[in-house]
Amino acid sequence: MDENIAIRISGLSKKYSISEKKTDLSFAGKLKELFHFSNHIKVKKPDYFYALKNINLEIKKGESVGIIGRNGAGKSTLLKILAEVAEPTEGTIEINGTIASVLEVGMGFHPELTGRENVYLSGTMLGIPKKKIVEKFDEIVEFSGVQKFIDTPVKHYSSGMYVRLAFSVVTNIDADILLFDEVLSVGDLAFQMKCVEKIQELIEQKKTVLLVSHNMNDIQNLCRKVVYMDKGSLEKSGSINVVKDYFEESYEDQAINVETPAYKESKKHFTNIIYKEWSSAEAPGDDSIKLKKFYVKNISTPDSDNFYTDDNIAICFEYEKLDNNNFFDLGFIIMSMNNMLIGCHTLHSDIDITKKTEQGLYIATAIFNKDFFNETIIDVGCSISKTNQTLVFFELNVLRIKFNLRIKEHEKEYFNNLSKFLGPLRPKIEWQINKYD
Amino acid sequence: MPETKIISASISSRRKLNLKKIWQFRSLIFAFAARDLRAQYAQTKLGIVWSFIQAITAALIINLFFGMLIKIQIPGIPYMIYAFPGMMAWYYFSFIVNSAGTSLVQSQHIIKKVYFPKLILPIYKTIVGLAEFIIWFVLLLMLHIYYSHPVSINIVFFPLCILLNIITGLSLAIWLSALTVRYRDVFHIIPYIVAFGIFVTPVFYESAMIPQQYHYLMYFNPMAGVIAFYRWCILDMSISINYLFGVIPVIMLFISGLYYFRRVEGIMTDVI
Description:
By secondary structure, chain A is α/β, with parallel strands linked by helices.
């Protein structure tokens, strides 16, 4: 095998059998089934599904590879097979070098044992000779920051300490290849940042790193190469930008696949508005206010299908006031694709509603001026509340909007050389250079 | 430059027993055993004294029932001295069958998350049991001093006794542990094997008390042989060559168990 290759996967498949659920759950039924006495009971029909389908992948030494994809795409199964926790159904994998994996942080820690004892135990479980653990022990403990409690049983640890110590063991034992499955989503923010730093350090030390994450930002920060998986197949691999677009596109496809009837309706009537309308029976609200429609409108180019980062857009609420009271409020909440809160706002905080409270139909419009969102996908939810803060209605992810980037003539050269800016926001920033003496 | 490791789905790689791997991971056996023992006595005030208390209580109860109430007489040997090696061997055997048999299901959280040869789990339980076995042995010596009954010179074969005891227990435990992964029902069967087994094995009574025409059945019970060997070893009691028949089921169970275990190991993380 080529010396520069760390992992070569060829024709890898993993098949799981799902047995059909039996209908007769009574004790007698189970007994009969056990001895196959009865014909009435369905004989288990073996049903299969492929968690991985014919995966071919080569990972070079020192490469940092991010594996992305939706839930159930087979990312974790792939790591499990690489870590030899699960066995493949077909295909072969060649591995050059020692592997350490964090499939779950803190695996194998025994609550009754002290931190010190657990470090040795989990090191041994990872196949590290005792001499090496002794050598690395101080380093491990120092990184974890639990020096003071190293001789305390881990059952007394806070979950943060537990995670820190476990992560520390795996990353400090000098393995050639490291597998991480969603580790960056555990622990507090400070520790997450420390983990990212540590992984960066490992990458700099020319370790081979495989990272499964749902968080594109982590992948973007850490990985040179990205593999996009879908339904057990390797759909695309390559540089970050290539795969990122692919990921977002297919994410959008999925959104259309699961669209509600109202969503479909929205395509019929308003091609450029992502739109939600409630029937009068379903309309959220109470006997004072009913929300009828909730949608996003492109103000800059009303006949356009697409939203660009330099379009003015509006989030609109169409509602009916049923009485003359004014104790209501409307709000929206914007989430990023990976379920991070970007922001929220309410009507009441901006407008004195008391002036417009008599019965009738209204449209409330929240306008976003251009150059606010970056090239991204956002999910918009809406709420109706009383002014005394009790919620009448609240739903996340009612609308989904994708913003495209229109690269301006003068920026073209710049973006050809560099990656686009990251993050969900792209506000107009005023730069200045002043001479400083 | 470490050699290239190949993970393959080919049939031939699945049929390999991979016993070499167990040798590579041998330190894990002791690490697991040490973990269990430490965890067992952590936070108990009396610690290891509990094991002594358990052994002494068991011995006293047996002596009371069989020695004093039922009055089983062994010519030339105090009943306690006669019964103790049998109890010791059976206790160790039942510990292995019980804890090693359920070891895979109990460690499922580790099995799913980290790689190691799974056969280590039933094996390390024998080491855990050995710790308590040593306590029984110390007690045995104390009994011999108390009754001033000499220990036979055959005691030099004692390690061989232990080894046979372990292999007999493991031959059953490997099968049971693999079976519990696929059929949890086995979990409930294990206590019965241990509970009934003690009555068909000459632990409390003498083998001579079994009618002559059924002796051939006893010879196929490997634990009967192991216990007879212990008694030969400690008390220099005669041992029939026929006990060698007990080796047949042990070897058959042991080797078939290894292969069955290996087969289950391949799907273990998927079904456990």
